[in-house]
């Protein structure tokens, strides 16, 4: 037992096995093999290394964004003039990456808590029995008192009175001047893996340049100041259409960087996408039209609490930062090369299938590829003192294979005779 273990260990550590190979001279199989190998090579070079850049490691950025709007609006509604500044038309005012710019509104002034009739269509009635006291309607403005108001034929409610009437949206939008507002975007990104920090205020973008530049995809692609009308236009919307009832636009700040070159070449690009409010859609095709919300300004008048209610229609802007940085790394490079070398084995598998199962001489190729042994003959060979480890090579002599003349076949194999090289 000890000697067997020793022999097994000796064979494992001090012997080397290599597979037997058969050289087949067949034009069709040879062409198929080389075409497959050429395709694999094109895949490795073209797709893995050039397109997918498999020789580089990747990292995404940690980013921060803040914004600042500038511009003044003017309205004149029924002879009431008003100037709107940033504090009036931007929500929220803190400069977040997601905010709303008001472009239209419905104002209800002087509301106070009390009892008043509902709007027509909200809860119509013909008698007090139609108005259940203490109940609410989801689309109503307050709690029903149980009284049907004869003048309006609607139920009376306890609410902020007079109730808001938002049936008629101003057209054209009241704040069409918002088209000329400007948006300043400041963005900073950090790639932790490569320890690189960049800002969209890249080299050459200084205070003097910012004071006079306006973003243009061709003339000033790095300028961080954007005109609201240009943002809407580049997102595919019509400003008047989206300003009337509101919508949403996404600004994508794209950082795609290659740190195999100088870091100063890592610069952002800006893309604009219409997210909601496509004017090509009809109102009937949409469950809810536009984008709006309400907010109120409360005050006291003669010790009575009152409020001014605004239903705001606006353009919601979402600033989205996407990033991908690459740099050469030996680990993904070796991994890509190793996987590519492994794929080369596909050519061998395909050619073996063609040789062994599809060609007319498949039985001949099987005899050449596989060596069959008879275990019953082995004891007799050992008793005669013969060495059963016989090595073979293939030589070109097609006339000696099974007595068949194959010399006239241009695609025939190079040889088929097994010649004994060594015997004990």
Write the layout of secondary structure elements.
Layout: H1 2-14, H2 27-51, E1 56-59, E2 62-70, E3 73-77, E4 80-84, H3 86-89, E5 90-91, E6 98-117, E7 143-149, E8 154-161, E9 182-191, E10 196-199, H4 207-210, E11 225-227, H5 228-234, H6 239-245, E12 247-258, E13 269-276, E14 292-301, E15 304-328, H7 330-343, H8 345-358, H9 362-369, H10 378-383, E16 392-395, E17 417-420
Helix pairs in contact: 2-7, 2-8, 8-9
Protein model, in words:
With 424 residues, the chain is an alpha+beta fold. Among the domains are: 21-55 and 329-363, Helix Hairpins, CATH 1.10.287; 62-118 and 163-328, atp-gated p2x4 ion channel domain (atp-gated p2x4 ion channel fold, Sandwich), CATH 2.60.490.10. It has ten helices and 17 strands. The chain has helices at 2-14, 27-51, 86-89, 207-210, 228-234, 239-245, 330-343, 345-358, 362-369, 378-383, and strands at 56-59, 62-70, 73-77, 80-84, 90-91, 98-117, 143-149, 154-161, 182-191, 196-199, 225-227, 247-258, 269-276, 292-301, 304-328, 392-395, 417-420. Strands 1, 5, 6, 7, 8, 12, 13, 14 and 15 form a nine-stranded mixed β-sheet that branches. Strand 3 (73-77) and strand 4 form a beta hairpin. Helix 2 (27-51) runs antiparallel to helix 7 (330-343), helix 2 (27-51) packs antiparallel against helix 8 and helix 8 (345-358) crosses helix 9. The longest helix has 25 residues, at 27-51. The chain is elongated, with a radius of gyration of 41 Å. Mean pLDDT is 83; it is low at 380-424.
């Amino acid at each position: 037992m000890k000697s067997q273990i020793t022999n097994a260990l000796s064979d494992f550590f001090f012997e080397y096995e290599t597979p037997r190979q058969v050289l087949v001279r067949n034009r069709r199989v040879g062409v198929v093999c080389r075409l497959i190998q050429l395709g694999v090579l094109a895949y490795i070079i073209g797709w893995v290394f050039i397109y997918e850049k498999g020789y580089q490691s990747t990292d995404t950025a940690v980013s921060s964004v803040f914004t600042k709007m500038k511009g003044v609006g003017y309205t004149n509604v029924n002879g009431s003039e008003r100037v709107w500044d940033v504090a009036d038309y931007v929500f929220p005012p803190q400069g977040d990456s997601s905010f709303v710019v008001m472009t239209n509104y419905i104002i209800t002034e002087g509301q106070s808590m009390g009892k008043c009739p509902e709007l027509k269509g909200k809860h119509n009635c013909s008698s007090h029995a139609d108005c259940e006291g203490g109940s609410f309607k989801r689309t109503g403005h307050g709690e029903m008192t149980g009284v049907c108001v004869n003048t309006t034929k609607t139920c009376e409610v306890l609410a902020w009175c007079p109730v808001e009437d938002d049936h008629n949206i101003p057209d054209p939008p009241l704040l069409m001047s918002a088209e000329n507002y400007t948006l300043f975007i400041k963005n900073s990104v950090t790639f932790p893996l490569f320890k690189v920090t960049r800002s969209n205020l890249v080299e050459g973008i200084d205070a003097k340049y910012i004071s006079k530049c306006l973003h243009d995809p061709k003339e000033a692609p790095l300028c961080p100041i954007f005109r609201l009308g240009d943002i809407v236009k580049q997102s595919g919307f019509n400003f008047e259409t989206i300003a009337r009832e509101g919508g949403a636009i996404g600004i994508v700040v794209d950082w795609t960087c290659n740190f195999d070159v100088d870091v100063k070449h890592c610069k952002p690009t800006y893309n604009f996408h219409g997210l909601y409010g496509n004017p090509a859609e009809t109102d009937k095709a949409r469950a809810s039209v536009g984008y709006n919300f309400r907010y109120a300004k409360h005050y006291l008048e003669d010790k009575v609490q009152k409020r001014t209610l605004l239903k705001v229609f606006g353009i919601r802007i979402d600033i989205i930062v996407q990033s991908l940085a690459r740099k050469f790394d030996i680990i993904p490079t070796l991994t890509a090369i190793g996987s590519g070398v492994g794929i080369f084995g596909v050519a061998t598998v395909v050619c073996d299938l063609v040789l062994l199962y599809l060609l007319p001489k498949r039985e001949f190729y099987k005899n050449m590829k596989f060596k069959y042994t008879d275990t019953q003959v082995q004891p007799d060979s050992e008793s005669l003192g013969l060495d059963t480890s016989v090595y073979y090579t293939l030589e070109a002599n097609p006339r000696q294979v099974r007595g068949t003349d194959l010399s006239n076949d241009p695609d025939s194999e190079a040889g088929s005779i097994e010649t004994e090289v060594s015997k004990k």
